[in-house]
Hints:
Blueprint: E1 2-7, H1 14-30, E2 36-41, E3 48-49, E4 55-56, E5 68-73, H2 79-82, H3 86-98, E6 101-105, H4 108-114, E7 122-123, H5 130-136, E8 141-142, E9 148-150, E10 154-157, H6 162-174, H7 177-186
Amino acid sequence: MSRIDILLFDGVEELDAVGPWEIFAAWAHLHPEDGWTVRMISPDGAPVVCAKGLVLAAHAGLDDLDGTGVLLHPGGIGTRALMRDERHLDWVRAAREAVPLLASVCSGSLVYAAAGLLRGKRATTHWGALDLLAKADPTVVVDAHARWVDEGDIVSSAGVSAGIDMALHLVSRLATPERAEEVRHYVDYAPA
């Protein structure tokens, strides 16, 4: 069994975390035989206060990545502090070594860039943070027009609701396009 971990932190953008959660949890609910689970993690396993005041609880802390197949780093105003938090950046670098696939939503890619994980790769972020992404690591090939960018071991998405599109892409990649379409229909998401 493999697991998708979604990182929570104070100042996380609500939909950046909860949108992908809905997609991955729906997939796990509809097809437990695919062997994937999803959970929320936070720095100390405690609840966090999101960007607009929603309080979200975590299932675990950051110290247990055994069994994590995908780590998703959402964005939000809290990423600005995380970009300068050497302890968090060290954790992200260690997670890169332990987790086969990293994903980001919105300004989560700023943290990956600050940690040096996007060197020479294509990536995207929220339209309002494109300049910050380029400044965080000038070697990043910033794609200002993509909803999501798949670089193999790192997948980034544009802002907020684009995380839903990226999550559906990951279901397609980790399972099948038919699974992704079934999940899209189940959650009644019509991107057009």
